């Protein structure tokens, strides 16, 4: 139990450190939210209006006072309100986060569905035409930046073929079909690059395992090749794949910004970028904190799982 | 039992035929709904604050001012059906029979209350300074407003046409309430950062308008996606057509492009950073830049060189003789530098931003041209918020800026060329221009058109001598739309950002 509490304390400490770093970073970079709000369209704002807005937003207080009030608010679970339009930051994150998770989930599903079977098939038929084509394609998929792929997809499927809208978002409850159609493009753009990674990882793992002693033994026992592949090779080969998937899940949480931008998908990354551009301090801190809490929670769960699986961790 | 079997050949055949299937526009049009692709989500719809052109477009739909512009850019009545000058310091506005969206009648008391809110010491309104020059507002009856100013103000009607000066129902914003306007559309719903849904206001004061019942505004921050959405048929109308897409949209038989040269690019200076305090150096820079290359490189040829103050050719204040004051002439530029004891040139840093390609590319072109007269320029390209901050604090030497006048009257240039105004990233820093300030004030107070013309003629001469800015080029501002869309017009020149007013006349088919 003390181990659990220690881990919990470390996790909370990490979140506080992140909140402090983000607070300092966003306040230290040049750019004043009040000035920006009143300087839209290249228009010069009146300094007295800017000063009044700074007072209204509480930005005229000393930075330590702002820090203390920000931390006190966070301690009560209150992420504050947007400096731009007084929207609740928590509500906005609550609306955006599921969309990013859905996008990442769909992309990951697609990547696994493509990457694992093709990687396995390529390893089984190593050196064959299919393997060579798939390996070459995966190289292309890995080297094409996601925004280039996205732009090309919009050009082909929306502008030329008119199969899908150019981008946007419709709630699932409003139109399930349109929602999935709009999701398909950004999910594919992310999924293709990921599929290439998973393909390579699966292929390498299967090749590595196919030459191991236990596989040779299984073959010597007369087990059918399909059964050896499914039950002995693939099951073990999936371990590094799962590790890769887990690593990418974390990095995608705040890294879907380009895809969200290209396809107009209103997720968490887009919110973070627009908040940074507007120097919307509460929104920036809220989004980064949400992402880091998810990271920390994920690590915390993994730590517990390790401990459950391997008791040495608890006493190490 | 029949089995479906998928062979490799049939799969490939099916895939190969896909591109030849008939085109299906995914976004089917909903009758009575017009979809407008906006460039950014309005940060706020606070009626009197400057919250950008995207917000201004929405504000023109849900609120209304006393006056507006017609499609040719001429002043016309809105909540005021007529207006006239009353002596040297008063204007009288006669209100029409109109109601706010809460069904309360629009009265002179609402106008008086609105002016008081904007002029309030704690106001963050764009026209706060202007409204503080109002001495008193008289309301002899519910339909008449008499506005008395502290000094003669010929440009007062232009204040009340500004999209940051709508008339709001008295008391509706008290205690954080939602402002109630009298515009043709009611804001029915919005999803922050994504879209806004508007529905026609059934008691709008213009019979038969708005022509379209539902207006859906979808935000496409990526300019290329915005153009793609129009080409794909997802939207009926887009603003800020990217310059690189103008050719494709203009030549698409299903679409039309409406552009105007309204906003402009220019160089501004910090008077505290030597040698930019010397007007000869600023003039030399003005003569060293090939503006047509700026237009070609930064705006894909969509714009026009600007070698004089940004006064449109169709303006009554336009003077062809002053159109090319800052003509490209490197000999003259070098001579001016020599006069300023800088014959060998000098090194300096130019502030621009990497966030907007037009600012960045303009800076790069100027950097090359200035090197030809011996000025070695290093570029400082931070993000836009940093650019604004450095500009406001005078932490730069000289820089690139883009802007648009408030209106097509030359007084709209004050915010850029009047160095006596408060420091701002939108104009030169610490560069006093007392003569210009005096002339601009005189032009604002002068009612006689001929005398005004003479004053602004002088403004152009003095601006050339003092060079508080170096104009570079006009940039085309475009709207792209479906061919079936009628009634929408891109308003001329600086009024382009007021084009949203014509949405009340717009309809599909």
Describe what this molecule looks like in 3D.
The complex is a heterodimer of chains A (316) and B (509). With 316 residues, chain A is mostly helical. Chain A has 14 helices and no strands. By secondary structure, chain B is an alpha+beta fold. Chain B has helices at 8-17, 53-62, 108-119, 128-131, 156-159, 223-231, 243-251, 279-287, 291-299, 330-339, 357-371, 384-393, 414-417, 434-445, 449-466; strands spanning 33-38, 67-69, 75-77, 80-85, 90-95, 134-141, 144-149, 185-191, 195-200, 214-219, 237-238, 255-269, 303-305, 346-351, 375-380, 398-403, 469-482, 485-486, 507-508. At the A-B interface, helix 2, helix 3, helix 7 and helix 12 of A face helix 2, helix 6, helix 12 and strand 16 of B.
Identify the notable features of this structure and list them briefly:
heterodimer, A: 316 residues, mainly alpha, 14 helices, B: 509 residues, eleven-stranded mixed β-sheet, four-stranded antiparallel β-sheet, 15 helices, globular
* Overall number of strands of chain B: 19
Overall 3D form of chain B: globular
> Mind telling me the C-alpha Rg of chain A?
24 Å
The number of helices of chain A is 14
Q: What is the average of the pLDDT values of chain B? A: 92
Greatest interface and its participating residue counts: A-B, 54 and 67 residues
- Rg calculated over all Cα atoms of chain B: 25 Å
Mean pLDDT of chain A: 87
């Amino acid at each position: 139990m003390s181990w659990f509490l220690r881990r919990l304390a470390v996790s909370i400490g990490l979140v506080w450190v992140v909140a402090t770093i983000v607070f300092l970073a966003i306040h230290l970079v040049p750019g004043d939210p009040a000035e920006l709000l009143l300087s839209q369209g290249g228009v010069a704002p009146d300094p007295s209006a800017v000063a009044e807005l700074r007072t209204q937003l509480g930005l005229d207080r000393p930075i330590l006072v702002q820090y203390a009030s920000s931390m006190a608010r966070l301690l009560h679970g209150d992420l504050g309100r947007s400096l731009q339009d007084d929207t609740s930051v928590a509500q906005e994150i609550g609306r955006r986060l599921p969309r990013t998770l859905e996008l990442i989930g769909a992309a990951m599903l697609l990547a696994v569905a493509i990457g694992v079977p093709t990687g396995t098939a390529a390893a089984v038929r190593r050196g064959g035409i299919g393997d060579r084509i798939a390996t070459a394609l995966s190289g292309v998929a890995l080297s094409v930046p996601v925004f280039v792929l996205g732009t090309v997809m919009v050009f082909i499927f929306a502008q030329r073929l008119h199969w899908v809208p150019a981008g946007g978002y419709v709630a699932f409850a409003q139109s399930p079909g349109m929602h999935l159609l709009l999701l398909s493009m950004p999910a594919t753009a992310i999924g293709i690059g990921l599929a290439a990674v998973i393909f390579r990882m699966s292929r390498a793992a299967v090749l590595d395992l196919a030459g191991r002693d236990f596989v040779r033994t299984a073959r010597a026992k007369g087990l059918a090749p399909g059964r050896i592949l499914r039950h002995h090779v693939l099951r073990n080969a999936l371990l590094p794949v799962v590790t890769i998937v887990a690593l990418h899940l974390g990095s995608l949480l705040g890294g879907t910004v380009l895809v969200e931008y290209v396809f107009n998908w209103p997720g968490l990354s887009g919110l973070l970028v627009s908040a940074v551009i507007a120097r919307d301090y509460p929104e920036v801190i809220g989004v980064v904190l949400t992402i880091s809490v998810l990271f920390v929670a994920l690590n915390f769960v993994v730590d517990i799982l390790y401990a459950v699986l391997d008791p040495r961790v608890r006493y190490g | 039992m029949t089995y479906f079997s998928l062979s490799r050949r049939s799969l490939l055949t099916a895939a190969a035929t896909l591109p030849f299937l008939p085109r299906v526009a995914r976004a089917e049009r909903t009758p009575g709904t017009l979809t407008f692709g906006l460039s950014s989500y309005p940060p706020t719809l606070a009626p009197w604050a400057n919250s950008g052109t995207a917000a201004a477009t929405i504000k023109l739909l849900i609120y209304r001012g006393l006056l507006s512009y017609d499609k040719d850019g001429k002043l016309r009545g809105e909540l005021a059906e007529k207006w006239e000058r009353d002596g040297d310091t008063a204007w009288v506005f006669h209100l029409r029979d109109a109601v706010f969206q809460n069904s309360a009648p629009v009265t002179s008391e609402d106008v008086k209350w609105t002016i008081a809110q904007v002029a309030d010491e704690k106001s963050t309104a764009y026209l706060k300074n202007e409204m503080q020059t109002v001495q008193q507002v008289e309301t002899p009856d519910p339909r008449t407003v008499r506005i008395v100013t502290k000094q003669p103000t010929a440009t007062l009607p232009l204040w009340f046409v500004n999209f940051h000066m709508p008339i709001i129902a008295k008391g509706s914003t008290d205690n954080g309430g939602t402002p109630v306007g009298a515009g043709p559309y009611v804001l029915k719903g919005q999803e922050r950062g994504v879209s806004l849904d508007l529905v026609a206001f059934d008691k709008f004061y213009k019979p038969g308008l708005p022509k379209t019942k539902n207006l859906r505004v979808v935000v496409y921050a990526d300019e290329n996606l915005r153009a793609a959405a129009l080409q794909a048929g997802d939207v009926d109308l887009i603003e800020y057509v990217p310059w690189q897409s103008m050719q494709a949209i203009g030549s698409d038989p299903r679409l039309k492009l409406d552009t105007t040269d309204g906003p402009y690019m220019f160089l501004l200076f910090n008077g505290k950073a030597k040698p930019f305090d010397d007007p000869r150096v600023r003039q030399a820079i003005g003569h060293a830049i090939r503006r047509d290359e700026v237009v070609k490189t930064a705006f894909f040829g969509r714009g026009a060189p600007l070698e004089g103050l940004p006064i449109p050719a169709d303006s009554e204040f336009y003077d062809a003789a002053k159109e090319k004051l800052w003509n490209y002439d490197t000999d003259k530029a070098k001579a001016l530098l020599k006069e300023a004891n800088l014959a060998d040139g000098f090194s300096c840093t130019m502030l621009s931003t990497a966030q907007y390609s037009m600012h960045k590319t303009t800076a790069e072109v100027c950097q090359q041209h200035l090197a030809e007269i011996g000025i070695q320029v290093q570029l400082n390209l931070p993000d836009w918020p940093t650019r604004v901050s450095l500009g406001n604090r005078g932490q730069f030497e000289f820089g690139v800026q883009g802007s648009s006048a408030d209106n097509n009257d030359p007084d709209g240039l004050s915010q850029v060329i009047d160095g006596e105004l408060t420091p701002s990233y939108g104009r030169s820093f610490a560069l006093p221009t007392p003569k210009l300030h005096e002339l601009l004030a005189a032009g604002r107070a002068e009612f006689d058109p001929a005398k005004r013309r003479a004053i602004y003629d002088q403004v152009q001469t003095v601006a050339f001598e003092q060079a508080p800015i170096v104009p570079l080029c006009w940039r085309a501002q475009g709207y792209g739309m479906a061919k079936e869309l009628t009634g929408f017009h891109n308003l001329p020149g600086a009024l382009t950002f007021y084009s949203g007013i014509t949405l009340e006349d717009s309809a599909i088919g």
